[in-house]
Structure formats: C-alpha cells, structure tokens
Amino acid sequence: MGATDRAPWAERDRRPFAWLSVDEDENDPTVLLTYLAAALDRIESIDPAVFDALASPGASTTAAVVLRLGASLSATAAPVVVVLDDVHLLQNRECLDAVAALIEDLPPGSQLALAGQAEPPLPLAGLRARGRVLEIGREDLAMRSREASLLLQAADVDLSGLDADELIRRTEGCRPRSRR
C-alpha cells in the first residue's frame, strides 16, 4: 500500500505510523524483523544493537532481536501505530511468534493494525479487549455493487451491469447489504 493509500488515515491520527506491507519475503524472521525495525527506526531511533543482532549470522539471533526490538518499542516516547498490511501472507511460525511477542511491547496508547484476507494466528483476544488492535478484513474491504460501479465509472471503465456483477463475484468483492 502506497503512501497515498494510507494518507487519509495518517492525517486523522496524530500518532506516527510504522507501516509494513508483508509479502512472501517477510516469511523469513530476519527479513521481517529488519523491515519492522527499519519502519520503527524512522519514527524514533531504535537501539543499534537490534540492527547489529540482525546483521549477525545464525538462527539463534531471532530471540535476541525480538527482546531488543521489544525493549526499544516499549521505550518509545509517544504512542505509535504499527500496521501490518497483507498479514495473511505471514505464515512462518517463528515470524508469527516474533509479532506476538512484540505486540506485548506496544507502549500505552499504541495500536497494532492488521490488514489481510484472513485472521492471522496471533493472540488477539487480549488486544481486542484492551482496544489495542484494529483489524481490517475481507468484509471491511469488499465493495457493494453500487460502490464497485462508481469505482469503475471513475476509472472510465464501461461494463454492463451483468459484467460488473460478474467482476465483483469473481473478485469476492461484494459484501452483504447492511440491515437497517
């Protein structure tokens, strides 16, 4: 997701954002933690020991990195929003465990935003109860027929009603109409 996609949300929220769009490469814990540390470092300096641990070879560094990154995260001066976009692509158990550990280190007033097509296997119940996670799922992103028609019109795409309905069906884009 580009900066223009998230700009309206960031403009309404005064907290700084650490935004990471997950792809298959992030299923390596070192890659995921490196990108996450870099995103957080743009907000407030992260302990250089985090980057040193990430640069050192060996699988045993993941636990040390998570501890150091968690300590840096919990010590941030102001609340932050950590966004994991396309989180459904995150499958590696070690990566998921690292995210779960870092969730607990979010400073007060901070929030984790998860955007994806499926709920990741993370301990979200406690975060939900404390209002510390924002989940954006398939139903939140899906469009109704009218919304899809307006989008197609704005893009100068001329489809018949049946073609537009078929496009929506194939892309799983139609959400149920709200009941009033």
Average of the residue pLDDT scores: 80
CATH topology grouping of the largest domain: Rossmann fold
Question: How many domains is the backbone divided into?
Answer: 2
Determine the fraction of residues in helical runs and give it as a percent range: 40-55%
CATH class of the largest domain: Alpha Beta
General shape: elongated
Poorly predicted parts? 176-180
In this structure, how is the largest beta sheet organized? 4 strands, parallel
Q: What share of the residues does DSSP label as strand, in percent?
A: 5-15%
Radius of gyration: 19 Å
SS-derived structural category: alpha/beta
N- to C-terminal separation? 33 Å
Count of DSSP E strands? Answer: 4
Which second-level CATH architecture of the largest domain applies?
3-Layer(aba) Sandwich
Tally of alpha and pi helices: 9
Helix and strand run:
HEHHHEHEHEHHH
The spatial strand order of the largest sheet comes to 1-2-3-4
